[in-house]
C-alpha cells in the first residue's frame, strides 16, 4: 500500500515517539515508591544472582526480575539479611526478605529500585518494536508508526513499563512469540524454527501461563495444514516436515526453560511432587471456626501429609519436562486462584462489591474503564475498517496469529473467576488491540469505499492526536488511571481495587506533601497499602483506629483508641474495604490484620486532597470526631461487610 509517510520521515517520527516514551518511563520510575510486588521481586532477583537459587517468587518465572536485579547486584551494595531466606516456595519468604532489605537500607533502597526499574525500560521499547513489525507487516508503514504511537502513550504501558514486575515483560514476550510464529508459519525453515523456539522459551520464563503457547500455535498450525492440503493440494510429506519442525521448536523451548533454571529438578515424575492446590493435590478443605471473625475463618487441608492426586495412578510416573520450582510455582498460583472461592481474605471486588469468586465480565469492564477513550474509539474504528477491507490470504493468516492467541488467553483469564482483583492480569491482550487498531492508518487510499475509509481515517487521526494529550495529562499517575467512562481516577476505586488503584506507588508524593505542610504539626495518621513500613524511609505516622468491630476493638493496640482530630491519609483500597494487612508504625517487619472494612468508615468524611490518585487525605476536626462517635453509638456504621 502507498504510504503517507516516507521511510526517513517514519524513522524520525518513531524516534521522537520512543524518546518521549522513554522520558515518561524514566520519570515514572523516579517519582514512584516501590510497589507491593516490586519489593519481593527485587529481593528474589538479587537472590538469583547472589545465591544462584530460584525458590523465591516461584509463582512467576525469574527472567524479568533477574534482568532488573542485574545492575543492582553488579554496581550497588545493598544490605541483605539472608537469614530470612526459606527454600520452601510456599512460605513466600521473598516478601520478608524485601521488607528486611528496605529496613536495612532505609532511604538508600529507593535508589536500588530506581536502577532496577531503568533496567526494564528497554523491554517496553522492544514492545514498541514488535507493535511496529506486526502493524507494518500486516497493514503497511503508516500503520506501524500508528501502532508505536498507540503503544508509547498507553497509560497501562507507561504504568507497568517501569515497574519490577513481569506484567509488561510477559505481554511483550507474548506479542513477540506470536509474531515469530506467524513468520515461521509462512516460511517454516530451520532458522525460523530456532527463532520460534527461542521466542516461546522467553515467553515461558516471563509467565508460566505461556506454557499454553505450543497448544495454541499447534492448533493454528493444524488448521493451516488442513487448509493447504485440501485447497492448495500440498503433499503429506510437506505437512509432516512442518509438524516435525514445530515439534523441534516446542522441544527446544522446553530445553530453554530448563536451562534458565540450571536444569534443577527437571523431569521429576508427576507423582513425586507435594501439591497445595486442590486441583492437583486432591485434598479436601474444611473451614476452621474463628469466634472473633467468622467471615475471616480460613479453609485448611484435611491432611497435612504430602498430597498428590496422581501419586497412585499411572500418570504419576510421567516425567514433567519442567524445572521443579517452575512446577511448584504453577501449583501455588492455582492455589491462590482457588482461595478466592473460599478464603475471606481473598475476595474479589467490582463496582464497590466484595464477594467470594469473581465475574466473567471483570476484565471486559476493566478494559472499558482503564483504556483511554481515544484508544477505545480507535479499536471500534478499526473493527469497522476491517469489515470494509479485503485482505490477502497472508494477511488473513496474520490476523489469525494475532487475534486467536490473544482471544483464547482473554477467554481463559476471564473464566478464571477465583480472584478478580488485578486488571493487570489481562494486560497481554493490550498490544494485540493496539496493533489491530493501527490498521485504519492505511485505509485512507483504499480503492473501494474511499469516502467511508476517508471518514474513518480522519476519526483515527483525531484519536491519535487526542491520546497523547490524555496520557500527558495523567502523567505520572498511570497506575491509577481511569477514563471518563470510569469516572476518572479520583473515584476509580469505587469500580476496581488493589493494583488498579493503589499498589503503594505514591509514598514519595506523600513525602513531598508532608514537606509542604507546617513542620510544627503532629504526625499524620496513615493507612498505607504497601509491603514495607513508611517509617523505613523516614515518614513518621500513627495508624488510624480501625472500624468498630469485634475483631478490631479487641486488638490489644487499639482497644481504647478513638478517632482523634488531625490529618488522615488513607489508601483508597482501604476506603473501598480491602482486607490487606496494614504496615505497622512502630515495628518495621510487623503488619496488622484488622479484617475487611477496617478503614472504610472514612467514606463518611469529605476528601480534602489526594496523594496522586491512590490515597485520600482527610482533615478530621473535633466536630467530625464527635459526629463519628454518635454514628457508632447509633450503629449507623456497619461493622460487617
Automatic annotation (TrEMBL):
Instruction: Give the Gene Ontology MF terms in alphabetical order.
Output: pentosyltransferase activity
Q: Name one GO cellular component term.
A: plasma membrane
Alphabetical UniProt keywords: Cell membrane, Glycosyltransferase, Membrane, Transferase, Transmembrane, Transmembrane helix
Q: What are the BP-aspect GO terms?
A: lipopolysaccharide biosynthetic process
Where exactly are the transmembrane stretches of this chain?
114-135, 141-161, 168-185, 191-223, 243-264, 360-385, 397-416, 422-444, 451-469
Entry membrane topology: Multi-pass membrane protein
InterPro entries in alphabetical order? LipidA_mod_glycosyltrf_83
Task: State what protein this is by name.
Answer: Glycosyltransferase RgtA/B/C/D-like domain-containing protein
Native organism is Stieleria neptunia
Amino acid at each position: 500500500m502507498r504510504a503517507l509517510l516516507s521511510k526517513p520521515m517514519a524513522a524520525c517520527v518513531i524516534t521522537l515517539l520512543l524518546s518521549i516514551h522513554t522520558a515518561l518511563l524514566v520519570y515514572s520510575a523516579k517519582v514512584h515508591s516501590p510497589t507491593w510486588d516490586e519489593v519481593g521481586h527485587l529481593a528474589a532477583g538479587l537472590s538469583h544472582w547472589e545465591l544462584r537459587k530460584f525458590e523465591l517468587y516461584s509463582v512467576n518465572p525469574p527472567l524479568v526480575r533477574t534482568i532488573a536485579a542485574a545492575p543492582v547486584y553488579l554496581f550497588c551494595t545493598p544490605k541483605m539479611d539472608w537469614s530470612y531466606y526459606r527454600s520452601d516456595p510456599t512460605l513466600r519468604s521473598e516478601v520478608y526478605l524485601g521488607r528486611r532489605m528496605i529496613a536495612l537500607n532505609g532511604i538508600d533502597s529507593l535508589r536500588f529500585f530506581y536502577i532496577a526499574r531503568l533496567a526494564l525500560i528497554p523491554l517496553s521499547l522492544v514492545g514498541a518494536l514488535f507493535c511496529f513489525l506486526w502493524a507494518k507487516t500486516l497493514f503497511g508503514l503508516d500503520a506501524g508508526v500508528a501502532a508505536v504511537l498507540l503503544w508509547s502513550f498507553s497509560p497501562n504501558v507507561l504504568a507497568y513499563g517501569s515497574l519490577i514486575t513481569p506484567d509488561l515483560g510477559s505481554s511483550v514476550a507474548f506479542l513477540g512469540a506470536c509474531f515469530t510464529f506467524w513468520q515461521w508459519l509462512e516460511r517454516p525453515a530451520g532458522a525460523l524454527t530456532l527463532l520460534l523456539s527461542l521466542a516461546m522459551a522467553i515467553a515461558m520464563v516471563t509467565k508460566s501461563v505461556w506454557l499454553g503457547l505450543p497448544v495454541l500455535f499447534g492448533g493454528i498450525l493444524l488448521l493451516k495444514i488442513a487448509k493447504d492440503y485440501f485447497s492448495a493440494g500440498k503433499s503429506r510429506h510437506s505437512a509432516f516436515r512442518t509438524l516435525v519442525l514445530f515439534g523441534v521448536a516446542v522441544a527446544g523451548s522446553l530445553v530453554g526453560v530448563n536451562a534458565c533454571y540450571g536444569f534443577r529438578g527437571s523431569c521429576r515424575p508427576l507423582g513425586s511432587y507435594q501439591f497445595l492446590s486442590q486441583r492437583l493435590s486432591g485434598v479436601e478443605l474444611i473451614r476452621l471456626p474463628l469466634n472473633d471473625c467468622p467471615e475471616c475463618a480460613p479453609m485448611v487441608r484435611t491432611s497435612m501429609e504430602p498430597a498428590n492426586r496422581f501419586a497412585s495412578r499411572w500418570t504419576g510416573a510421567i516425567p514433567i519436562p519442567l524445572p521443579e520450582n517452575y512446577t511448584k510455582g504453577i501449583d501455588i498460583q492455582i492455589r491462590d486462584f482457588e482461595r478466592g472461592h473460599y478464603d475471606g481474605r481473598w475476595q474479589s471486588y467490582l463496582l464497590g462489591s466484595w464477594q467470594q469468586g469473581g465475574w466473567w465480565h471483570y476484565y471486559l469492564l476493566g478494559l472499558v474503564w482503564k483504556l483511554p477513550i481515544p484508544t477505545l474509539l480507535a479499536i471500534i474504528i478499526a473493527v469497522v475498517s476491517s469489515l470494509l477491507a479485503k485482505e490477502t490470504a497472508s494477511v488473513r493468516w496474520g490476523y489469525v496469529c494475532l487475534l486467536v492467541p490473544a482471544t483464547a488467553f482473554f477467554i481463559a483469564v476471564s473464566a478464571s473467576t477465583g480472584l478478580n482483583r488485578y486488571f493487570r492480569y489481562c494486560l497481554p491482550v493490550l498490544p494485540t488491540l493496539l496493533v489491530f487498531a493501527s490498521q485504519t492508518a492505511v485505509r485512507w487510499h483504499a480503492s473501494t469505499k474511499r469516502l467511508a475509509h476517508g471518514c474513518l481515517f480522519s476519526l483515527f487521526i483525531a484519536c491519535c492526536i487526542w491520546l497523547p494529550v490524555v496520557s500527558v495529562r495523567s502523567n505520572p499517575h498511570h497506575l491509577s488511571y481511569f477514563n471518563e467512562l470510569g469516572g476518572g481516577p479520583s473515584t476509580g476505586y469505587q469500580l476496581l481495587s488493589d493494583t488498579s488503584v493503589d499498589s503503594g506507588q505514591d509514598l514519595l508524593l506523600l513525602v513531598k506533601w508532608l514537606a509542604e505542610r507546617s513542620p510544627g504539626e503532629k504526625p499524620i495518621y496513615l493507612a498505607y497499602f504497601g509491603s514495607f513500613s513508611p517509617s523505613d524511609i523516614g515518614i513518621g505516622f500513627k495508624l488510624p483506629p480501625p472500624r468498630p468491630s469485634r475483631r478490631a476493638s479487641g486488638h490489644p493496640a487499639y482497644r481504647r483508641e478513638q478517632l482523634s482530630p488531625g490529618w488522615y491519609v488513607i489508601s483508597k483500597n482501604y476506603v473501598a474495604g480491602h482486607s490487606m494487612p496494614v504496615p505497622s508504625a512502630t515495628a518495621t517487619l510487623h503488619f496488622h490484620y484488622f479484617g475487611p472494612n477496617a478503614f472504610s468508615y472514612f467514606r463518611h468524611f469529605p476528601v480534602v486532597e489526594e496523594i496522586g490518585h491512590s490515597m485520600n487525605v482527610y482533615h478530621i476536626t473535633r466536630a467530625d470526631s464527635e459526629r463519628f462517635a454518635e454514628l457508632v453509638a447509633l450503629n449507623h456504621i456497619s461493622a460487617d461487610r
